[in-house]
Amino acid sequence: MRAVLMRRNGGPEVLEVVEVPDPEPGPGQLLVDVSAAGVNFADVYQRQGTPPYGGELPAVPGQEGVGTVLAVGPDVEGFAEGDRVAWADVPGSYATRIAVPADRAVPVPPQVDPRNAAAVMLQGMTAHYLSHTSYPVASGDPVVVHAAAGGVGLLLTQLVKLRGGTVIGTTSTDRKGDLARQAGADHVARYDTFLDVVREVTGGAGAAVVYDGVGRTTFDHSLAALRRRGLLVFYGASSGDVPPFDTARLAAGGSLYLTRPSLPAHIATRDELLKRAADVFGWVAEGRLTVRVGGTYPLSDVSRAHADLEGRRTTGKVLLLPE
Ligand SMILES: NC(=O)c1ccc[n+]([C@@H]2O[C@H](COP(=O)([O-])OP(=O)(O)OC[C@H]3O[C@@H](n4cnc5c(N)ncnc54)[C@H](OP(=O)(O)O)[C@@H]3O)[C@@H](O)[C@H]2O)c1
């Protein structure tokens, strides 16, 4: 089989495609033929070696995908050869084959296109917990979604709208702004003006919640955009991490709240994983959540996929299609 291997941390050029032996499905595992692997910003941090994502080397990156079960290991119940499954938070997904722990595998309903399934496992379940758990958006809430045309951003914008919130989305270009609007964003702004837009839309009160996956370049304005006792959900740092933070700023801003959540803590049990995946797949099947696969790349173009994601040239989901 073929896999992307990373022997050292660095730029996109450290990703190479190599031949490796097929994995054996051990106890509790499924051997899966991968038809699409998700590319996520966390894979960029892992490649760069940014803590806490670095990990041991050499490594096969990627943590999300969809595929067909080729063989079932010992002590597995409920899965059979030929089943279509998807997963998130399973290392080693940039490969033609992978051993997936059965308790992390989610059956893909026949109504959901396999590529769309791969596209929503990580970013869709993230959008789910952000809008339903970190801050359960209520009707009429003014909500900021940064990078609204990105993988998480387009899905999160739609879920906030499904819950009745008003979305102020940020993007870097007009084209991305159009995509955010198509996803339902009520207002679209650039990063240097969104604070003014929030104040205008809320009559000076501020946003109920800001979902910030951009980090260094947005953090200060995200805090400033909150209403009294508002919540900053700081869930990623695509522009770089935020310097050490003086918690007195939360009091000065009006008793603000800050959280830095992660997906694994929101799908830690099998019940929670299946519930979030079922909700997301259900919305996709019903046409209430539209999936945008903005770019597909063969495994051999993995370096270009990473360069495009880091270079802000992608929209929606980026997928690798192992050939
Ligand atoms: N905590 C969690 O559970 C969790 C789960 C999934 C993802 N995340 C985080 O969510 C964020 C979005 O992830 P994603 O995979 O959906 O990526 P993405 O949003 O598709 O891509 C990143 C976007 O960030 C924006 N951006 C702003 N400043 C940037 C900069 N200096 N360099 C690169 N991009 C910049 C760009 O959009 P514009 O060009 O429009 O600015 C870019 O397209 C990432 O920080 C990721 O780590 C967190």
UniProtKB/TrEMBL annotation:
It comes from the Bacteria. Pfam families: ADH_N, ADH_zinc_N. Residues 10-320 form the Enoyl reductase (ER) domain. Keywords: NADP, Oxidoreductase. Gene3D superfamilies: Medium-chain alcohol dehydrogenases, catalytic domain, NAD(P)-binding Rossmann-like Domain. This is Quinone oxidoreductase. It comes from Plantactinospora sonchi.
